[in-house]
Amino acid sequence: MRNTRQAVTASQTCAICERSLLVGERAVRYSPDGESFVDVCPLCQEIALDHGWLKEGSPTTPVVSERRRKRLPGLGSLFESRKPQVERVVDEPILRRLSGPEVAMVEAADLFNESAFRRTIAGIAKSLGSPRASIVPLSGTNSEVVLTVAWDISWYQYRITPDSGQPVKLAERGHEPRELESLFTAWNARLTQDGRIAPDISPV
Prior knowledge:
Elements (H helix, E strand, L loop, with lengths): L7 E6 L6 E3 L5 E4 L6 E3 L4 H6 L3 E2 L10 H6 L28 H14 L3 H12 L3 E6 L7 E6 L4 E6 L7 E7 L14 E3 L5 E3 L5
Antiparallel strand pairs: 1-2, 3-4, 3-5, 6-7, 7-8, 8-9, 10-11
């Protein structure tokens, strides 16, 4: 196995975005239920606090409304399927009927932008700059879509299945974009200034 410029620690995985922490990254422990503790990477700590998780060593338990506790009962709820409440991620009005694959791309981008992974990618982009991205609907009876985000020294690949209880999952990650199959390197999407993944679709 060849060495890479950035190794990962096998023992620590973020409980929110599920990625392995890079060497030098310091995880902070949070408790979703007030009893057990899990590791949270620096990019996801704000998400943990937003959901009322207790940071290890905190003198008091954060106050979380009963409404929020009912809506977010535990870790699994971070990844529950929700219908996006935002507009479609297309910059210009579409003046034609979208094809089936184009509809799948837009829906996959919407689901990703509503997931916790969006904040992870936006946070990495602040350090590494704007990434290249692709959205590829897979052929077959299921509606699975592969979303790939890549920089020169790192890449992440997500599987998006709209009908699944957990529609967005981190499938693979690596360090060299040349490790990716050519199917996933036809860069047809981008990261917008507000941190969303948007497919490049011609309006006419």
